[in-house]
Amino acid sequence: MKFMTGLLGLLPCLFSALFAPLCATEIRVQDIAALTTAIAAAQPGDSIVMADGTWPDLNVNLEVEGTPEAPIVLRAETPGQVVLSGQSSIQIGGRHLVVEGLYFKDGVAGERVIAFRGASKKEASHCRVTGCAIVDYNAALPSKKTTHWMSLYGTDNRVDHCYFKGKNDAGPIFTVWVGDGPNRHRIDHNYFAGRPPLGRNGGETLRVGTSQVSMTNSRTTVESNFFEHCDGETEIISNKSCENIYRHNAFADCQGTLTLRHGDRCTVEGNWFFGNNRAETGGIRIIGEDHRVYNNYLSGLTGSGFKAALSLVAGIPDSPDNGYFQVKNAVVAFNTIIGCRHNLVIGAGHGSRDRTLPPLDCTFASNVIVATDNPAVELESEPLNAKWLGNVVSGQPGVQGESGVTVLDPLLAKDADGLWRPGPATPLLDEAEGNFPFVAQDIDGQPRGETPDIGCDEHSSAPILRHPPNRENTGPDWMRHNSKTDSQE
Length: 489
What we know:
Layout: H1 2-19, E1 26-29, H2 32-41, E2 47-50, E3 53-56, E4 59-62, E5 72-76, E6 82-86, E7 89-92, E8 97-100, E9 102-107, E10 112-115, E11 128-130, E12 133-135, E13 148-152, E14 158-160, E15 163-165, E16 174-176, E17 186-188, E18 191-195, E19 206-209, E20 221-223, E21 226-230, E22 235-240, E23 245-247, E24 250-252, E25 257-262, E26 267-269, E27 272-274, E28 284-286, E29 292-294, E30 297-299, E31 310-313, E32 331-333, E33 336-338, E34 344-348, E35 363-365, E36 368-370, E37 377-379, E38 387-389, E39 391-394, E40 405-407, E41 412-414, E42 420-422, H3 477-481
Parallel strand pairs: 1-2, 2-5, 3-6, 4-7, 5-8, 6-9, 7-10, 8-11, 9-12, 10-13, 11-14, 12-15, 13-16, 14-17, 15-18, 16-19, 17-20, 18-21, 19-22, 20-23, 21-24, 22-25, 23-26, 24-27, 25-28, 26-29, 27-30, 28-31, 29-32, 30-33, 31-34, 32-35, 33-36, 34-37, 35-38, 36-39, 39-40
Antiparallel strand pairs: 41-42
């Protein structure tokens, strides 16, 4: 009898759990009071739909609980037509929540515009912001205040197909705050545009971690994003944590670098860097231990030193958290550098600010460098115990007596997509050296095979699966196709 009574008592709970998505509702709200009420009453599977129009000084606190099968969604009635102006912000603190299609413009940023942490400091997990835009959300007057347009806390969250343009004050556009353990966030298919020079430190476009937590594993993945005219400071992306992945992103006309500033064991794979001969454009900067940098395409970059196409920075003995740790065990392989003013710089910054430790135990394998103005390799300090395998350079090599560096015209040809690829008579085919099982594909997503080619591009009849991200395949769909919204120019 007691068993039956207990079972009957559980039936409403079981029924609610099983059929919650079927009972989900769509709640349309037209003002702040209705929105607040709808959020307080939201159940798994509900969609709260904000009416088109301008919502000034709206501060949303979305602290509710969805489920994997039935997330709670806060979305625009028409994507891009719900405008949050003034000092508007959204705080997300819960699980399985989605914010979609909102447009922040004509406003003034507070400390944060969108934060994956609620007013109670509850952090988000398995939440998503998608198809949103933040444009010119700056202080009315120049200010030393630090703002963060997007603050990513918690774990397993995603920000995708969003647009960020015009941040001109201190603080990164996008910050990943790393806690005690892995975050496992995904940042993908976003368009970052028009970050003007700040003139001092603190003008990053994207920062993952801080110096204080830089030895913590974040395991954030940043992929398939487009960065254009991101000139805030030397670090476009500032990595300050461990085991992050940066892959399949494109950087166009950016006066800075993807910088592995602090932290170890990160991967920089299959990215495109287009300098277009614009002044001070840069590529990839390496600091720390056990990084893998491979399959990247770097062209037309004009920066030097820390802004070279690819630089390994000299380290500081007993470096503090915010200093420069020695580069150790880096693998730099299968990259293509073409038409850059400074190509591969080893020991960048040696002798300044106590930087005296050269890179140690690094491997340079199957890279192709077409050098023009300067040697293919510039040694600001001699690397210790470096391994050179199957590299091909044209022009001045810059290193002497290395059997793994061959001076040879790679005979690249410009393809219909504007990229330089191995031509029909290239000597790069099947000539890669060394064993790198993690390099299973080329930059296009084509298989490498048993005898890979030198450089980022494998000569293959297989379909090309990846193309450089650009204005047409990143950011919100509504911004690309709706003439009522601001141009992305």
